[in-house]
Amino acid sequence: xxxxxxxxxxxxxxxxxxxxxxxxxxxxxxxxxxxxxxxxxxxxxxxxxxxxxxxxxxxxxxxxxxxxxxxxxxxxxxxxxxxxxxxxxxxxxxxxxxxxxxxxxxxxxxxxxxxxxxxxxxxxxxxxxxxxxxxxxxxxxxxxxxxxxxxxxxxxxxxxxxxxxxxxxxxxxxxxxxxxxxxxxxxxxxxxxxxxxxxxxxxxxxxxxxxxxxxxxxxxxxxxxxxxxxxxxxxxxxxxxxxxxxxxxxxxxxxxxxxxxxxxxxxxxxxxxxxxxxxxxxxxxxxxxxxxxxxxxxxxxxxxxxxxxxxxxxxxxxxxxxxxxxxxxxxxxxxxxxxxxxxxxxxxxxxxxxxxxxxxxxxxxxxxxxxxxxxxxxxxxxxxxxxxxxxxxxxxxxxxxxxxxxxxxxxxxxxxxxxxxxxxxxxxxxxxxxxxxxxxxxxxxxxxxxx
Length: 451
Description:
Distance between the termini: 51 Å
Number of helices: 15
Number of strands: 19
Strand content: 15-25%
Shape: globular
């Protein structure tokens, strides 16, 4: 049986068959983002199946992040289905063009792994990790506890995941269910914006400035009933925002009226920034202010992206759920990786790394400002430049030898922009880059327009 939808015909008798057929049509481009699906009963009649079968199919599609349902307005293909990830929007960088679009750290600032990996292997030879052993390396656990405690995070259980996104996904799944709403920064981390619909959650955009999420925007989202709030503490991707003391106090104040909301603080910039961490999950007395909360720190930016290790801490119930589910799936994160990260973390001197990134950001910001270009980048690896036309800006800079990331990868409802990664830039390149950005944007009479 089939149902005609334009040139596409929905087929299937079972819920899994109907869902798979629609998902394939979206992936192949037969159903475009925003396309309306047939009413549940209409499709059931056309296919000759029970309406419960179609309802189950639509539920599967919602859980997979392919469609969304808006009450009487029916079901539609999501504007960005989970099977069309934002990473697919990356551009090919031709030979000879400087790649400022990738978001990678400067590998000359990441440590040599040789000694740490060798020591981890020697430890494995004498004390191999076997089934039934502890999930976290004792040295890594001690370092994590000291790091969190030193920054005012309440004493709580510590866990390990395979990077920040893995940790965040596990926390979400421990506390949320499909259909829940999550307040996220806009612009924000593209991978997170992909993850939410893939898990069946709905993202609620929160505007940000250089100090992080706007207090009024967070208050509005909380009043509207979001189930969770995601905040990037420092080195926000793509804007470089960092939550300062005053902003943290304002956010804690509005969160105090909603202690049951899940709060996740992503401090992936730990180790590459020289701005202090201001926790939202705890008050000045160090006590937790939220019932369910988590703080995540990754090794990817400071030690290297291939070290897929993040430490996380949070309230006991959430951490019990996270670690219990982890045991049923992956089991644990390799102790060879954990020990390598622990050895590197223990020896790490973060000051020179943070100073190097700051110098590049500040110098480029100054060069851009001198040419009338407004840009943002308080911390981390990236700058954000508002533009009127992302396609024109990306194409214009590519023609001049610079590849930058289009802001569409990071936006939900915020105005357009482009992201520049500063980590590979030398001081000698900055004047030419700033001049090319200014030329592409052509500031005239205070109005910035694309070429």
